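This part of the workshop introduces the protein records we will be handling. The question running through the whole workshop is how a given chain folds. To make this concrete, we reproduce a full record directly below:
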Amino acid sequence: MAETTPSSSPQVNSYHCLCSVLILATVHDLQYLPNRTEPVRDDALILPPPIDVNNSDELSITSDRPAESVLLNTVLERKAVVIRREDGFEKRRLLRCGRCKLAFGYSLEGAHFANAEKPAEPVYLLPGGLVTTADMSNGVKPETPSWAQSA
């Protein structure tokens, strides 16, 4: 009889862009991540650090602990988008799929964080921008979110 031992490694979840390119590998299950709330109105998921980013050395997060999430095939916009909010402004740098250029998330400019040292920054994932590998394998066709549709 084979002896089984519990795995000490966490399960890695993978997520794809709507065009099928692998974008995210993470130990977090996106359905259990917290969302941004008022006064922010985009309901984005908060992907906690540490995060490694492939194809973008500008957003790579250096940390003493190993990354819990890896963004792949990702392009970070050089120019920030300024969002007007009730309580002021927010500068976002969009994260786009390297293949189809769909914006699936963003990071905030460092000025939004009160700590004088550069903290490990979260990444914000827009709702409906990613699909699980399991859903993609099962032929589930995701609906394009309203924010991603062309005018």
